[in-house]
Structure formats: C-alpha cells, structure tokens
Specification:
- This is Inner membrane protein YgaP.
- InterPro entries: Rhodanese-like_dom, Rhodanese-like_dom_sf, Thiosulfate_ST/Rhodanese-like, YgaP-like_TM.
- The chain crosses the membrane at residues 117-136, 142-162.
- Pfam families: Rhodanese, YgaP-like_TM.
- Residues 14-106 form the Rhodanese domain.
- The protein is of the alpha/beta class.
- It folds into two domains: 2-106, Rhodanese-like domain (Oxidized Rhodanese, domain 1); 113-171.
- Helix content is 48%, strand content 13%.
- It has helices at residues 6-15, 26-31, 47-52, 70-81, 93-99, 113-134, 140-156, 160-166; strands spanning 2-4, 19-22, 32-34, 37-39, 62-65, 87-90, 104-106.
- Strands 1-6-5-2-4 form a five-stranded parallel sheet. Strands 3-7 form a two-stranded antiparallel sheet.
- It is elongated.
Length: 181
C-alpha cells in the first residue's frame, strides 16, 4: 500500500490539484479536517462510486485520510480489493496535518463516539443491575447482553452499539449525513 506523509502531500497539493477523501464520521469531519479534504465516511464507502465521481481523474492518485491513519488504511484496502491501485494512505492523518500547521477547517466540537459507547454501555449495565436487584432478577440479562456485546466488539473490531449511535441525529451534520466540503 502506498503512503505519503502530510508535508509531502501539502507539497504535492501546491504543485497539482489533488483529490483527498476523509473517511471519518461526519461529526469528526465537521470538528476539524484538512482544508483540501471532502468527507466519505468509511462505513458507507463505495469505492466504485467514489472513483466514478472523480470526473475523469480516476487515473490520478486518490489520497485517503482519517484521524491517525488506521481507518484510512482500511479504506485503501477497500479500494484495492475493488481493483483500484492508485490510492495513497496519508500517514498520521488529520492529527499530523494539524500538528504540521497545514490549513484546516475547524467547526463544531463533537462528543466522541467511543465516549458515547462507554456511557451507554455503562448506563445499560448499571440499569440492568439496579432493575435486577429491585424489580426482577431476569433484568441481570440486560447487563449480560451489554457485556457480551462488548466482548463481540473487542473480538471482531465491529461494534453494533457504535454503529447504532453513529446513526443518531446528534451524530449527523445539518442537511444530511455528509459534511462534504
């Protein structure tokens, strides 16, 4: 997989028009993103649709960025699995871009999704225990269900609770699910 650091990417941008997609969630993108990036969330990424929308520049490199480089690496693999080889992962992601002093767009702060998952899981676990103690012992099943979900997320890297919370209205940008620049 091809990679590029943020300073090399900025130099390339100064010489040529480049295409950069940010694969983070819309709320993360809204909070801060590289000025040159547009948002295509990883969970709804369709490599064929992205390449088709590039208006004849599909043979030019497509640069993929996220917060730190992990999700963009996953996105690059999706593109390569779909047969597109000219995709480049931006090392260090938006965090490195911002630390390098490169131009960013800052917007409304968001409550991080993983904190939302932790609060929700903790609340549901506590609720299950309280209801089991005061109402009926079967409510302990709620705590067990949440625990099993957390184990599933840890083992597979897929978190159904995070996916559900990501679709909640407070995790969407005004005017729909995308915050395209």
């Amino acid at each position: 997989m091809q990679t590029i650091d943020v300073k090399q990417l900025a130099a390339e941008q100064s010489r040529n028009e480049i295409d950069v997609i940010d694969v983070r969630m819309p709320t993360e993108f809204r909070e801060i993103h590289a000025e040159c990036a547009h948002n295509v969330p990883l969970d709804s990424l369709d490599p064929n649709a992205v390449m088709a929308s590039r208006n004849g520049s599909a043979d030019q490199p497509l640069y993929v960025i996220c917060r730190s480089g992990n999700r963009s690496e996953q996105a690059c693999k999706k593109f390569m699995d779909a047969g597109f080889k000219n995709v480049v992962n931006v090392e260090g992601g938006t965090t490195a871009w911002d630390k390098a002093g490169l131009p960013v767009v800052r917007g409304k702060k968001a409550f991080p999704l993983m904190q939302q998952v932790q609060l929700t899981a903790g609340f549901l676990t506590l609720l299950g225990v309280v209801l089991a103690y005061f109402v009926h012992p079967y409510f302990a099943g709620l705590s067990a269900f949440v625990g099993a979900g957390l184990m599933f997320a840890g083992a597979t890297g897929a978190c159904p609770m995070a996916s559900g919370l990501a679709k909640m209205p407070w995790n969407q940008c005004d005017g729909g699910g995308s915050c395209s620049a």
